[in-house]
């Protein structure tokens, strides 16, 4: 692994934000397509639940993140760009509840559209492959140089 891949990344830029949102958009759009084929109402409900769960992560997990804390009024990081800091920033380690939110909610987000994806095996395969690409790329290129040391999956050398 070259130096650029292991050096701590103290700031994200707009290119990071675009890249990671494109990567996330593949499983998300795949899930939306699977649900929309069956029910537009459930598609709307799915999107609303996703937004609410992301806000829960934003409140309990992101508020400890240096990228959240160092942003002025709006968060600027690899996943959010210009999103207002609705919640008070918190320094110090995550509580057990916050750690649980950080690990459990992403799992819920991944499993949420499974019922509709099982009805369309082709989309199910694309969905799981894109989720695997998302997780492995995150691990390989971000977790190893992330400055959010309190994060339960951080694996950067301190
Ligand atoms: S980098 Fe990750 S943990 Fe930090 S504010 Fe952005 S989404 Fe939240």
* Ligand species: iron/sulfur cluster
H/E element order: HHHHEEHHH
**CA-atom Rg in angstroms:** 16 Å
- Give the overall silhouette: globular
Number of strands: 2
Q: Please give the largest β-sheet.
A: 2 strands, antiparallel
Please characterize this protein's 3D structure.
The structure is a single chain. Helices cover 61% and strands 4% of the residues. It has 7 helices and 2 strands. The protein has helices at 3-6, 14-38, 40-60, 66-70, 96-111, 114-118, 121-141, and strands spanning 74-76, 81-84. It has a two-stranded antiparallel sheet with strand order 1-2. Helix 3 runs antiparallel to helix 5 (96-111). The longest helix has 25 residues, at 14-38. Iron/sulfur cluster is lined by residues 61-62, 65, 67-68, 75, 77-80, 148.
Quick synopsis:
The chain is mainly α and 158 residues long. It has helices at residues 3-6, 14-38, 40-60, 66-70, 96-111, 114-118, 121-141; strands at 74-76, 81-84.
């Amino acid at each position: 692994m070259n130096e650029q891949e292991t050096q701590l990344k103290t700031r994200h830029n707009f290119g990071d934000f675009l890249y990671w949102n494109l990567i996330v958009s593949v499983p998300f759009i795949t899930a939306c397509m699977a649900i929309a084929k069956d029910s537009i109402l459930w598609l709307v409900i799915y999107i609303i639940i996703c937004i609410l769960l992301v806000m829960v992560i934003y409140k309990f997990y992101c508020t400890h993140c240096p990228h959240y804390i160092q942003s002025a009024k709006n968060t600027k990081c690899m996943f959010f760009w210009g999103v207002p800091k609705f919640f008070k920033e918190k320094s110090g380690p995550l509580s057990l509840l916050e750690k649980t939110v950080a690990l459990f909610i992403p799992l819920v987000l991944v499993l949420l559209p499974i019922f509709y994806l099982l009805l369309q095996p082709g989309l199910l395969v694309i969905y799981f492959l894109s989720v695997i690409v998302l997780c492995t790329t995150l691990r390989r290129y971000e977790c190893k140089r992330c400055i959010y040391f309190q994060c339960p999956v951080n694996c950067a050398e301190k």
